Amino acid sequence: MIGFLKSEQHVQPVKDPKQIDELYKYWRFHIMFTMYAGYALFYFTRKSFNYAMPAMIADLGLDKSDIGLMGTLFYITYGVSKFLSGIVSDRSNPRYFMGIGLVMTGVVNILFGFSSSIVMFTLLWMVNAWFQGWGWPSCSKLLTTWYSRSERGFWWSLWNTAHNVGGALIPLLVGVVTLHYGWRYGFIIPGILAVIVGLFLCWRLRDKPVTLGLPTVGHWRNDTLELAQENEGLGLTSAEILKKYVLNNKYIWLLAFSYVLVYIVRTAINDWGNLYLTEQHHYSLITANAALSLFEVGGFVGSLVAGWGSDKLFDGNRGPMNLIFAIGIFLSVAALWLMPLTGFVLQAGCFFAIGFFVFGPQMLIGMAAAECSHKDSVGAATGFVGLFAYMGAALAGYPLALVMEQYHWAGFFTVISSAAAVVGLLLLPFLKAQTSDVSATAMPKYR
Amino acid sequence: MRNYGITSLCGWLLISCSWFCLWVLSYYFIMEPELAILLFPFALRLGTVLHTPKRYWLAVYGAEWWLMVSLAILLEQSQWLSVIVASVISVPIIWFAQKYYYGSQWRRLCVMGAVILSTALLNVLVFSSQILSLQMLGAQDGTVITAPLYSLWMVFLVSVTGGLMLVPSCYLIWSYLFQKSWIPLTVNLVSKPIELRSRHVVIYVVLFALSIAAQVGLPEELRRFAPFCLAIPIILLAFRYGWQGALLGTLLNSVALIAARSGVSNMEITDLLLSLSAQSLTGILLGMGIQRQRELNQKLRHELNRNHNLSRQLVKAEESVRRDIARELHDEIGQNITAIRTQASILKRVENTPMGESCASTIESLSLNIYDTTKGLLTQLRPKTLDDLGLEEAIHQLVRELECEANGISTTIIWNEPTDVDLDLSDATSVTLYRICQEALNNMVKYAQATEARITVTFEQDVYLTVKDNGVGFKPEETLRGFGLRGMKERVQALGGEFTLSSDSGTQQPGTALHVVLPKL
Question: What ipTM was predicted for this assembly?
Answer without folding.
Answer: 0.83
